[in-house]
Amino acid sequence: MALEKYKEKRDFESTPEPKGEKPRTSPTGKTPRFFCVQKHLASHLHYDFRLEHNGVLLSWAVPKGPSLDPATKRLAMHVEDHPYDYGEFEGVIPSGYGAGIVMLWDRGTWTPQVDDVDKAIEKGDLKFTLDGYKLKGSWVLVRTKGGYAGSRGQEGRSWLLIKHRDEWSSGELDIAEFAPLSVKSEGDFAEILSQDNPDIWRSNKPAQGGETGAMFDRIIAQAMQMRAASKSRTKAKTTKAKKTTAKKRR
């Protein structure tokens, strides 16, 4: 089963992530199909790059995020396939594997530049075009040396995500810094967390120290402020509505 590893790593009683029970028939050949990039703040910040194929999302974790500069080769670690409906997931994973905040950073369609995607992946050289909100144009995923054809184990996990030179490439624009917000909610990590439970990691946040731990501290504090402000506005509206209703009854 394509999603066995995905399901083994998760406790669906405690995570809001999709269970992957909805069957999906993906387009074949050079027909466009879904892709997304999820910005994931967990034990460290990284970007999950996902391409729909054979009913699931082929997935790579890109630590530094995609780059529009053809001269910049981004490490992309091949991870377990994810269910198709994961492509719209945005929210908070409270504990366990991947605990942290997930933002839907980009989405759109991808089109293979090869006739056989499976053979291209086995070979370790997948060329494609993206048509997203933030990422567009021609790209390639290349498996690095040390792996072996068809490997889904440790040796074959290391790939490179590279932008081809075209009208959408840029050596000057850092797309992650230029466009940091969600394409789904238009929010940042703090806004996503404020819609859930900002107090969830008071005693045990996913990263305790270093730059990532400090980032969590800032985001949790911001989210708690947003939550408090939202409650205050709601209370004020309720009080105003009650006063208006009381006046009408007089």
What is the topology?
Elements: H1 4-8, E1 33-41, E2 45-53, E3 56-62, E4 74-83, E5 91-93, E6 100-112, H2 117-123, E7 125-132, E8 136-143, E9 158-163, H3 175-178, H4 189-194, H5 210-249
Antiparallel strand pairs: 1-2, 1-6, 2-3, 3-4, 4-9, 5-6, 6-7, 7-8, 8-9
Taking all residues together, what is the mean pLDDT? 91
SSE order = HEEEEEEHEEEHHH
Question: Distance between the terminal alpha carbons, to the nearest Å?
Answer: 68 Å
The major β-sheet equals:
8 strands, antiparallel, barrel
DSSP E strands, number: 9
Poorly predicted sequence stretches spanning 5 or more consecutive residues: 147-153
Rg computed from alpha carbons, rounded to a whole number of angstroms:
21 Å
Total helices: the number is 5
Across the major sheet, the strand order is: 1-2-3-4-9-8-7-6
Give the overall form. Answer: elongated
- Tell me which oligomeric state these chains represent: single chain
Number of self-contained structural domains:
1
Strand content: 25-35%
What can you tell me about this protein's structure?
This protein is an alpha+beta fold and 250 residues long. It contains 5 helices and 9 strands. It has helices at residues 4-8, 117-123, 175-178, 189-194, 210-249; strands at residues 33-41, 45-53, 56-62, 74-83, 91-93, 100-112, 125-132, 136-143, 158-163. An 8-stranded antiparallel barrel has the order 1-2-3-4-9-8-7-6.
Give a summary of the structure in a few sentences.
By secondary structure, the chain is an alpha+beta fold.
